[in-house]
Design goal:
The structure holds 2 protein chains of 2 kinds. Chain A is 0% helix and 57% strand. Chain A is built from no helices and 11 strands. By secondary structure, chain B is an all-beta fold. In chain B, strands 2, 4, 5, 9, 10 and 11 form a 6-stranded mixed beta sheet that branches. Classes of the chains: A mainly beta, B mainly beta.
Chain lengths: 113, 111
């Protein structure tokens, strides 16, 4: 079984809808991250969490919120989806901070119409 | 100016060729340098990790860091069709609150 799982893998939604992307990990790591990947822009950090009670904004957090339900679970929400949030979303975990290896999930492809 | 610049390619080479992938960066505080490999419809996975300047070799892969030029490279020797993927450079510094990625270079190795 995969160490980092993401659900759903694909989602098509409409402008204005609320959507939640979920991430679970079995690596036992405290650190979890949400990134989005766009062609020509690479991976950009949305939010990160260094433990259950620690949530931090990344470089592109506007329009997103997160919830760290447990050490193993980190969810990303789009409160009111807009078309320019169409992207590939990745969850990642690490044992240390940004200097440590990050383990990525398989990604969620989100399309906002 | 972006923190990390990477030629997006695409790059297409015949099997057995030597491949050179490169990134430049602007922040002199970066000390941790990584190369991630991303296959189609998969998440990135760490391929090489280098701290500070110098070379690191792992099988057919060699990572080089030249901090004086703010330039990092990944060399792939005897390239194989299974090396076909997007290669992302990434870097950060001590105490940083982000991992800075290049845009990725898409590589195709033709049998």
């Amino acid at each position: 079984d995969a160490d980092v799982t993401q659900t759903p893998r694909n989602r098509i939604t409409k402008t204005g809808k609320r959507i939640m992307l979920e991430c679970s990990q079995t690596k036992g790591h405290d650190r979890m991250y949400w990134y989005r990947q766009d062609p020509g822009l690479g991976l950009q950090l949305i939010y990160y969490s260094f433990d259950v009670k620690d949530i931090n904004k990344g470089e592109i957090s506007d329009g997103y919120s997160v919830s760290r339900q447990a050490q193993a679970k980190f969810s990303l929400s789009l409160e009111s989806a807009i078309p320019n949030q169409t992207a590939l979303y990745f969850c990642a975990t690490s044992s240390g901070g940004f200097t440590d290896t990050q383990y990525f999930g398989p990604g969620t492809r989100l399309t906002v119409l | 100016q972006k923190e990390v610049e990477q030629d997006p390619g695409p790059l297409s080479v015949p099997e057995g060729a030597i491949v050179s992938l490169n990134c430049t960066y602007s922040n002199s505080a970066f000390q941790y340098f990584m190369w991630y490999r991303q296959y189609s419809r998969k998440g990135p996975e760490l391929l090489m990790y280098t701290y500070s300047s110098g070379n690191k070799e792992d099988g057919r892969f060699t990572a080089q860091v030249d901090k004086s030029s703010k330039y990092i490279s990944l060399f792939i020797r005897d390239s194989q069709p299974s090396d076909s993927a997007t290669y992302l450079c990434a870097m950060t510094g001590t105490g940083a609150n982000n991992l800075f990625f290049g845009t990725g270079t898409r590589l195709t190795v033709i049998p």
